[in-house]
Write a structure and sequence with these properties.
alpha/beta, two-stranded antiparallel sheet
């Protein structure tokens, strides 16, 4: 069974972006040390256009071969004219409003997101599924998430988009480890307690 990993950036106060979902303020903390960590440990989480700009096109996927993201996350790329932001992965976008994909590499999941994720998790393969965001998709998939990788940036939004956009549902995870960086970023990893 393949794992679904919610690999997400958030502020100290647990928001993945401002009230509109914009998390660009966190990009200021991507320095050489932190980028080297992402490149070595989670290379597939770097968008294809970012990899190209950094001369990292040849990076092999280590943990994921598939990505699921919500419409809001996908729209960030579309606004830049990028229709396949993770071309090095199988790309799925969960959206009830986007009926046709603007790119042949991107499949739209319009309904039964949980069913589709269960189908993807049941596939053969050693690599997992990267849940990129956003809050609504993570809330809908809360029971399917096997691992959390939370990149906490040293900023406070005060208000904004939470990590999980759903009602109260206590879900337990086991702490696996933490990594700290000189720029103040902390990366914590948790496994689903089943």
């Amino acid at each position: 069974m393949r794992k679904l990993t919610y690999f997400i950036a958030c502020s100290i106060d647990g928001f993945i972006g401002d009230p509109s979902g914009d998390g660009s303020a966190m990009m200021a903390f991507v320095d050489e040390e932190y980028l080297a960590f992402l490149k070595d440990e989670y290379p597939e989480t770097l968008p294809t256009h970012g990899r190209r700009a950094l001369g990292l096109d040849d990076l092999e996927n280590k943990g994921f071969d598939t990505i699921i993201q919500g419409r809001g996350s996908y729209d960030l790329a579309l606004k830049e004219g990028i229709t396949s932001p993770y071309a090095h992965l199988r790309e799925y976008v969960a959206s009830r409003t986007l009926t046709e994909s603007p790119d042949p590499n991107v499949e739209i999941i319009g309904d039964d997101l949980v069913g589709k994720v269960r189908e993807l998790k049941a596939e053969d393969g050693a690599l997992g599924i990267y849940l990129c965001g956003g809050a609504q998709v993570a809330g809908e998939l809360r029971d399917e998430i096997d691992e959390l990788v939370i990149k906490t940036y040293p900023i406070v939004y005060g208000t904004g988009m939470p990590m999980f956009g759903s009602g109260l549902a206590v879900t337990e995870f086991t702490f696996d480890g933490v990594r700290t960086f000189g720029n103040g970023v902390v990366v914590r990893t948790y496994s689903r307690k089943r």
